[in-house]
Amino acid sequence: MVAVLLVLALSPQDDVGKLLVELRKANPATRVSIEIRLGNAAEDRHIPVFLRELARGPGDIRISFVRVLRTHGTKKSLAALRSLQSLHHWAFRGEVSYARKILGDLEGMDYLVTNFASPRLKLKDRLAIVHYLSASYCGKSGKAAKSLCIVLGSDKDTDLRKRILTALVTHKDPDSLSVIRAIMEDPADAVRFEAMAAMISTGDQSAMEAALALIEEGSVPVQACFALFQAIQKRGSKSILPRLRSALEKSGDLNLRMRIIETLSKMGDRKALKIFQELAGSENAALARAALDGILALAGWSNVPGLVKLLGNKDAQTRIRVAKALLALDDISGLPVLRGELSSDNATIRREAVMALGTCRRGEVVDLLLIAMEDPDASIRTTAASSFRATLEALHPYRRFNLGRMGYRAASPDEDSRKAALEKIRAWWRENRSK
């Protein structure tokens, strides 16, 4: 009898039935839009069907149907969500709690708060629900912040404590910020630097000052660099740039110097270009590459002479990147370098040179692309031919170019026919170069 009612409630011919079939087959990337459409199209009579699908489905499908019920948003769907609160794994329960909160029922979040602080909850379960207690999920709840602080102070798992710090920052609760500050000021605490980054992200100037002092001392461990510099990049003002430049010049720590270069670049400090220029000639390949990244990120017309000097770098890929940056600034000083790299024995180098040429739409690159169209590698020939056609169409916008009509096919294994076609193309270009 129940099966008959379910069939009557939902058939493959109705819109909800079609969406249900789509949801079962969808990959995670497309599932969200289907969940929304299904929730909006559904009626209360479909809820038993959703619950049945949820009960028998794998974990990700179960969460999908929780979101469908949340989107549907009626009193009956809220009642269905309440019936699911204590079922399945904790990530599922967190999703149910969030859905209940969206529909105006905060008891689900209270359920998470109470259980999260319980010593009986396993580490993996805490890891599954910690982000649901952030303000972005449960709102600025003092209960949630207190529960997070209890576990932050009592648990020894570093990964869990880092996640709790991230969640606590969204609350901006005065009591929780004092807990984070205490951790930041404890040199022996394993998440000290993450706590410092969390305080910086709230705009705390004392935390920023402490971080800069540690950077100047060279006392930032490798594993803490990412979080700390990410926070500095987001919240730092121009006033800290001189101190970072000074630290870059004085530090002997490779990882720290690379992070400072990245930070100065992202904060748009053009005064650091002179330092980057010196470091780009470093014998340490990683440091030289980071400095070059910084130069290219800040490259502008005023920096063209400095870029031209880097065309003599020993590394072929560096030379190509510099030439490409110059082309982006409408400077063709790097074309001789790219022409030389088209003769490299390394196919990767030749391909990168062709791709750099493909970023320019000036007549000066046409002859070089014609050389690349003779490359022994079919994929390189194809890339060169595509860029050649795009360049000609930019130079002659009222004409269309079909290389196949002239007999040239980049993928053809017949070398003689390709060469004959290229001679025709070169002859045409000589006649039309100046038009």
Q: What's the layout of helices and strands?
A:
Blueprint lengths: L1 H8 L5 H11 L2 H14 L5 H10 L2 H14 L2 H10 L5 H13 L4 H10 L6 H7 L5 H4 L3 H13 L3 H14 L2 H11 L7 H10 L3 H13 L4 H14 L5 H10 L3 H13 L6 H7 L5 H14 L5 H6 L6 H13 L6 H7 L5 H11 L8 H7 L5 H18 L19 H18 L3
The main sheet comes to: none
Measured on Cα atoms, how large is the radius of gyration? 30 Å
Shape: flat
**Counted beta strands:** 0
Q: Give the terminus-to-terminus CA distance.
A: 82 Å
Structural class: mainly alpha
Helical proportion, percent range:
55-70%
Describe this structure in words.
This protein has a domain of 103 residues: Serine Threonine Protein Phosphatase 5, Tetratricopeptide repeat (Alpha Horseshoe). The longest helix has 18 residues. The protein is mainly alpha-helical and 435 residues long. α6 runs antiparallel to α7 and α24 runs parallel beside α26.
Summarize the structure.
By secondary structure, this protein is mainly alpha-helical. Helix content is 69%, strand content 0%.
